[in-house]
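Pair request: fold both.
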Amino acid sequence: PDVIPVAFHMDYGEYSDPMAQPINSRFYEKVNTGDGFGLPLFALDFRKSSQHIINEYSKIASEIEAQTKEYPAVCGVAVHTEYDVMERSLKVTARFKSDVAGTYRYHIFLLEDSLEYPQAGSDEETYIHDNVFRLMYGDNVMGTRLNSGDPLKPGAEYTEIKTMILNPEWKAENMRVVVMMLDTEDGGETYSCNNAVECGLG
């Protein structure tokens, strides 16, 4: 399956990460198993990982294989973007359709690629960072309510149109929009990603 990585940078001990965002620690708390602090931490679809720290390719591949079998995609997601260069305004039109009735939420993320910053453990003076989380619509790590929180009808299409303003320091040509549909398996206590799509600005 295709995977869209999202890198939530965080300060770590005495190291200050210039790509960290205040909300990132809340995403970490959402997926952390609770048995200590450690980075990097891989969590597929915003579910708590089966192990505290998964930072090896073989472990990541194993987690993806296991969870895609257990949690199949039941919805479709589409996205269209319009970008105003002068205003640095991004209009995101997201469309959702589910095969299964239920209550859903969604995330709209902005990611940036090709950021040059030092990286611990790298031999290079600068390291190229991709998939860096920059901004999301709303402030709820559980997602924004789709259809005002009312259950969706199977096969019906639902549209959300949102506008986001880019920071002047971000390079729009290196940015992507990621839209994901979130569902719940525990009656609304937590939400995880069921399907996602990405595209460039404009």
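--- second member of the pair ---
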Amino acid sequence: YAMIVNYKPIKELTEALGRSGSDDFESLRDAIDSLSTQNEHMRAQLMCSPDGQALKDSLLFSLLEGKFDSFEAYNREAAPLDMAFLKPCYQVLMLRLFDQEGELPRQVLADAFAECFGAEFSWHFRDLFEQSMFVCLVGMDAGMEETLMARSLRLLDVCAEKHGLTFSIGASNCYADVEHLSTACFEATQAVREHFIRGRHQLIRYSELDRTLTVSMPGDPNITPA
């Protein structure tokens, strides 16, 4: 695919190099300008197509997997896709959808996020190769964790009341560096799995999970395994 869409401008560049003498670079400049124009046109078309969304999903997945060593490195690739994260703090939300027949239109969830999060937060989401699971990375200013949790509760209500969608949401801890995003994904995933215990339409924080098991035995009723 990349060879097909790039063949014409590269061919023009090669032909221009063949025509250019040591003192004449006008044809080379023309070829470079043509290459730049066609690449911009190709990018604009791609961003309006399903393939453009696939690129965004892939880039977000790479970020969450820890394949970038800094947000600066990520933003260099993300800026042309309008996916840059410029906030200092980040949390991962994992959404588990229940009883949905057929594919959930992406725009429905995008509208719900936009309504509930507003301009105070930056966010991008994608599915997790499972019809019922979605991950959302949220950027925010320091000290806004409780505000995000309140907005997440509102998200549950908006999805239920306006769209007839029932979710539970798992929320990670808050982090300030890219190295911990894969950890945040793990935390959010563990939290949302608690829906088996907490039920549906729940916001479950990873920090609230209690894995302590207290066992009572004859003669020693207060044994707590390590």
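Observation on the second member. The first helix runs from residue 2 to 19.
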